[in-house]
Amino acid sequence: MKKSLLILLSFFAVACSKKLEVDTPDFNVTLDPARLVADTFTYRLGDTTRFKFMGTVGNIAFYSGEPGKSYEGRMSATKLGRVTLSFSSKAQYGTQVNTLQVLATNKLAGLDSAAVVNAAWTNISNRGTLATGATDVPFGAADLTDLLANENDSLFIAFKYSGVTGSTQRTWTITQLAVNNVLPGKTVPLSSFSTDVAYWTRYGNVWNPANGRWTPSASDLKITGGDANAATNTSWVVTKPLYAGRVPGDVSTGLKSINEPDKEEYAYAYPAPGVYKATFVAFNHTLDEEKRVIRELIIKVTP
Which CATH superfamily does the domain covering 22-75+249-302 fall into? Predict the structure, then answer.
């Protein structure tokens, strides 16, 4: 009995220590050889590239080589390029002047009203064009890079409204906001209305009526000025902290998982002229091991 138990335990020890191994993928990719000039496959804009697959593999991921979709850029990083702010504005009703300021800072001691009001804001209103009437006016792409110390710094942007009792106060609408970190070959979005509608913070002395303070939505920021009898109104709205130098890794498109049958081809149409390195990552894996092969093709898309 004791001997049998030792044999059984030895069997389990060997079984538990055995590594779950996989085979190196048997996988290759080709394109129409008639398209090949030197080492580059050439297509016209609107053509479909048909990648032909050969072999058997558990998983396939595809990097098209477009901005944000390149194999070389798959790892996240910190890199500061040119940080830009753009939006459009319009001012309706009344004739009061200097009722809107655009401000930015890289430091906020807190997110309470005292910290916001007393922060070392830089007035960036003159780095672009603000509306003077009811027609939408693009601000332009204002460069804010000088306000950041390094790639690990944060940035806050604020819109400060001022309306004075005694005459009709102006109504401001801000649209098409975009804050970007512009790098060579890649633009990293840092903020927009659609992504950050829930993250704007508002401060001010007028909270009734509700539209007397900044109102964020997925498409705009708006504040409605009062009539001549309305109280003097100072209202702020501030972005979340924008970590300008954080660059997320590029993404791939999953073409096949281990639960799917082998694919014979993949069709893809590039949306713009350019030269692209299309990369296929084919891999087999278990909990213990992964083996992969990488296939690359250079594609040129002409107008």
Answer: Immunoglobulins (2.60.40.10)
Residue 199 DSSP code: T
- Of the candidates 85, 100, 164, the one whose C-alpha atom is nearest the C-alpha of residue 132 is 100
pLDDT tens figures, 30-62: 999 999 999 999 999 999 999 999 999 999 999
Give Cβ neighbours of residue 40 (< 8 Å, ≥ 6 apart): 275, 298, 299, 300
Residue type at position 284 = N
pLDDT at 1 over 70: no
Segment holding 3, helix H or strand E: helix 2-17
Cα 107 to Cα 116: distance, rounded to the nearest angstrom? 10
Q: Is the dihedral of CA 87, 91, 95, 101 positive or negative?
A: negative
Hey, is 44 helix, strand or coil?
strand
Residue from 180, 166, 152 nearest 246 by CA: 152
Instruction: Report the DSSP pairing between strands 122-123 and 233-238.
Output: unpaired
First-to-last alpha carbon distance for the chain, in angstroms, is 81
Domain map of the chain by residue range? 22-75+249-302, 78-247
